[in-house]
């Protein structure tokens, strides 16, 4: 990976990272280059796409974090169930939005079952006090917050020590670093 270090910042193939975090990531034996096409497969009810789901996915897109959203990424004219299964297999992580709408969606329930059956790490985002049923019921979740940026920060903070590919780890660390800088400068301008 081509690198340029200036002060405490390392620039490389994966963007800009604080040097300390880059060194930790580089020296960790938990990470490697991803063979997966996507960092996240995003499971959701299509009824939620214009709200929290869309906002979180826009944050991923802005940060160049590859995610698969069937509404946006499924090719026209191909059988949707096969395309969804393929995308789940090609994702490092399975992110599921647990909302009133998704609870009633047979697609979301099937995607959860397929993901868990394939052993893909699953991250539920739970909205409100929704009662969850099925295989996902006993899985630790992240509570969705009013601000989607805070929700993404919570997810990434929980993931930064997980065994992920170098690509996913770099994206997560860069995102967290950017938020910390934003918070630092927001506090300094008050």
Commentary on this structure:
The structure is a single chain. With about 190 residues, the chain is an alpha/beta fold. The protein has a domain at about 35-160: Rossmann fold (3-Layer(aba) Sandwich), CATH 3.40.50. It has 8 helices and 8 strands, in the order βββαβαβααβααββαα. The strands form 2 sheets. It has a 5-stranded parallel sheet with strand order 5-4-6-7-8, sandwiched between helices. Strand 2 and strand 3 (about 15-20) form a beta hairpin. Helix 1 (about 20-25) runs antiparallel to helix 8 and helix 2 (about 50-60) packs across helix 7. The longest helix is centred in the last third of the chain and has 23 residues, at about 165-190. The chain is globular and about 45 Å long. The termini are far apart. Residues about 1-15 and about 25-30 have low confidence and may be disordered.
